[in-house]
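Structure (tokenized):
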């Protein structure tokens, strides 16, 4: 790929659990030719492989609690320092509170970078819960118990939702209706990013 066809989109996708941000994140990242950096996926992969990190975070994930900020931010910094993230990335699941926003700001500023856009997937709580119940049956994720789901949604409302206003003040939030077909939602996100002047590969 030549330099001219490269995009440099630095994106974050935010939404409540069950909003479909994982699915949409993969689609959008693909069309921009950038890697998805999902902290949840990183933690789950480590748990599956039984690494030291995995052992440290298993109980935290099962309870639906947050992994400590310093540890999470260090993992993200390492991941974003890899070559494939040089020209952009799509963050999913990080930052999740204002402390993590500070860590990310500091890291990106050190590289002369900043987020270009924050995609906010809007989905009502009842819809999120219904989708998560379905996912619990389909995927059997160990943190998709009723208790852990409710706890994660509470953390979302109390800790993650406040980061939206931080990014809104910077004028980089694109609020997208997350109810509809997968293709419709991808189309809405694409349109919002294109309107921002961010270019997709195809
Ligand atoms: P969900 O959005 O459905 O909760 P994720 O895959 O994003 O799923 O996250 C799963 C779990 O991984 C979280 O409940 C939390 O324990 C941990 N985790 C993911 N991202 C972070 C983060 N940025 N900070 C702390 N913990 C995190």
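Design, position by position:
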């Amino acid at each position: 790929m030549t330099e001219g066809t490269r995009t440099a989109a630095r994106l974050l996708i935010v939404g409540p659990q069950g909003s479909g941000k994982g699915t949409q994140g993969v689609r959008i990242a693909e069309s921009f030719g950038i890697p998805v950096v999902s902290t949840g996926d990183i933690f789950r992969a480590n748990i599956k492989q039984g690494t030291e990190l995995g052992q440290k975070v298993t109980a935290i994930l099962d309870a639906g609690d947050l992994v400590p900020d310093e540890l999470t931010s260090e993992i993200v910094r390492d991941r974003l320092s890899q070559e494939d993230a040089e020209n952009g990335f799509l963050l999913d699941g990080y930052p999740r509170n204002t402390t993590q926003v500070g860590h990310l700001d500091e890291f990106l500023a050190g590289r002369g970078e900043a987020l270009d856009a924050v995609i906010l997937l809007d989905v009502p709580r009842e819809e999120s819960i219904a989708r998560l119940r379905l996912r619990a049956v389909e995927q059997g994720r160990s943190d998709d118990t009723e208790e852990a789901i409710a706890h994660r949604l509470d953390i979302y409302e109390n800790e993650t939702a406040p980061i939206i206003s931080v990014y809104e003040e910077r004028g980089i939030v694109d609020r997208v209706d997350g109810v509809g077909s997968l293709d419709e939602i991808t189309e809405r996100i694409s349109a919002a990013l294109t309107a921002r002047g961010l270019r997709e590969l195809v």
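Reviewer-requested clarification: The chain has one domain: 3-195. The mean pLDDT is 93.
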